[in-house]
Amino acid sequence: MDLLLYAVLTFAPAGSFIAFAKALEWWTREHGATRSGAGSRGSEIKRLAGDLRRLECDYCRIERSDLPRRSARLQSVSLAYDDTLWACCEALDIPWPGRPPFDGVHRLEMEASLAQRGVIW
Known about the structure:
By secondary structure, this protein is mainly α. It has 2 domains: 1-36; 39-121. The chain has helices spanning 2-35, 38-64, 70-91, 104-116.
């Protein structure tokens, strides 16, 4: 009897977490399918362009400042900018080899490709 109680107390929390995860996955799959479409793609591009604009402003602000650990801050903003550029290219189906971080030449080429597709930030 004690062994059965021990097994139930051991596996019940894990089982409830698994059931909750499956229910959450089902919920997002069912409700996410109704929201997807051409409109959401445009809004995603607008959101990413806004993120690029914000990150570019943050980079310039940090570069002019005398904040402590400025180089680490610049590196983190640069990585976020590269990741957002890559996400923009993915959203517009622009094939791009590799993942961030990018060097200056690749970054400029990506920005030019996005500008050719009409993305302005």
